[in-house]
Amino acid sequence: EAGVAQSPRYKIIEKRQSVAFWCNPISGHATLYWYQQILGQGPKLLIQFQNNGVVDDSQLPKDRFSAERLKGVDSTLKIQPAKLEDSAVYLCASSSLRDEQFFGPGTRLTVL
Amino acid sequence: QKEVEQNSGPLSVPEGAIASLNCTYSDRVSQSFFWYRQYSGKSPELIMSIYSNGDKEDGRFTAQLNKASQYVSLLIRDSQPSDSATYLCAAVTGGGNKLTFGTGTQLKVEL
Fold this sequence. Notes:
heterodimer; A: mainly beta; four-stranded antiparallel β-sheet; B: five-stranded antiparallel β-sheet; 11 strands; globular
C-alpha cells in the first residue's frame, strides 16, 4: 500500500512570496490533515478535511494560509504572503475510519 | 495545563536496557492515545496506539494507559541504538479525530 505523498520536499522562498504544497493521501482514506511542525515542537494541526469538507480549521491563520481538497482526494496548502515565522515542516497525514493517522514525508519550508 | 505534556529529555539509556517514556494529559483529551517515533529530519511514524486502560504489547514496545492518573507511557525493551529518536505522544482532542501532540522526548541509546 502506497503511503502519503507530498511535494515538494524542500522549498526556499523570500518573505512576502507565495508557496503551495501538495498532498496525496493513502488510497481510500477519507480524512486528510495538514500539520505545521516547528523545530523542537510537536506537530500542530492547521486544517482537517473529511472528504472535501473542512472539519477543523481553528488554528489556520486564514489571513495568509488557505487549503483546499476539491475532489475529496488530493489537497493543496498555500501560504500567501509568507513570513519568516512560517519556516517549518509542513506535514500531511491521512486516516481511515479509525483514529490512526499516517504521515507523509513532509515539506521543509525556509523563508528568508 | 497543556493538553498533552512530555519531558523533552534527552533520556539516555544504555544498549539493552528498558527505556521508559512518559506522557500526561488533561481532562480535555479523549481516550485515544498514540506514540509516534520521529528520526531527525524525518516525519513521524506511528508505532503504537492504545485505547483502553492497561497494557498493550507489540514486539519490544509496550504502551501503558492509566486513566485514573491520566498518564500514558511507552516502554522499549532491549533498547538498540536504532531506537534513538524523538518519541511523540499524541491524543485525540475535540470531536473530529484531531490529534494534539506533546513536544516529544528525545531518546538516546548509548553503546
